[in-house]
Structure formats: structure tokens, C-alpha cells
Design goal:
Elements: E1 2-10, E2 15-23, E3 34-40, E4 45-48, H1 50-58, E5 62-63, H2 65-71
Parallel strand pairs: 1-5
Antiparallel strand pairs: 1-2, 2-3, 3-4
Length: 114
């Protein structure tokens, strides 16, 4: 099965992505069938040939979630993580300890030792 997916290129902190058509189980640095464009996250630059994408989709290629997020950003809203400051404080109630004493009335005489 063919998929349209991101193909990482470049250095660790200066990474760019090629948008390619490749087998769904191919390696990240494996062979690809066609090169459709590129995406640079640092500058948010997206260059893509829409006609080729449509042609490959007609041939049966599926778009991966990463590429779909670039093409349809409204489909994936940004969900902000809750920070520690916005968490509501939890009130802890301390229950007083209940002591139960049992008193046994035993008829012990003064002379008997227990």
C-alpha cells in the first residue's frame, strides 16, 4: 500500500521534511516512489504540488496523519496542556482519630495478682 508521508532530512536541530509517496512499511530513510514537496518547520514553509497529490490519491495512495495535519490544520485543533498552576487545589480533610477504650470489670480482689 502506498502512503503520502513525511521523509525527514537535515540535521538534528535544523530538520526539514520531504513529502513523498512510499510504501507504508518502508524505512524512514528508505526508497520512495515520488517526491511531492517539502516542509520546513522552523519557517513554517510548505511547498507541495497539489495536482500530484490528487493524482496519487486517485491511484490509491493514502495520506498519513502527519501530512494531513499540514494540509488540513482546522481538522486538528491545538489542544493546550494544563500546567501545574491551573490545576485546582485538592482539599484534604483530616478526620480526628476515634479512640475506643474497653473497660472490663473484673472482680479482682486486692490480694490477687494479675
Amino acid at each position: 500500500m502506498l502512503k503520502i508521508k513525511l521523509f525527514p532530512r537535515g540535521k538534528k536541530h535544523a530538520i526539514t521534511y520531504r513529502i513523498v509517496v512510499a510504501q507504508d512499511r518502508s524505512k524512514i530513510n528508505g526508497k520512495f516512489v515520488a517526491d511531492l514537496g517539502f516542509y520546513t518547520p522552523q519557517t513554517k514553509t510548505l511547498s507541495l504540488d497539489q495536482k500530484e497529490v490528487a493524482a496519487w490519491q486517485k491511484k490509491g495512495a493514502q495520506i498519513t496523519q502527519g501530512v494531513d495535519k499540514l494540509l488540513n490544520p482546522k481538522k486538528y485543533p491545538n489542544v493546550k496542556k494544563k500546567s501545574a498552576e491551573t490545576k485546582p487545589e485538592v482539599k484534604v480533610e483530616i478526620k480526628p482519630e476515634v479512640k475506643i477504650e474497653t473497660v472490663v470489670n473484673s472482680p479482682l480482689s486486692k490480694g490477687e495478682a494479675a
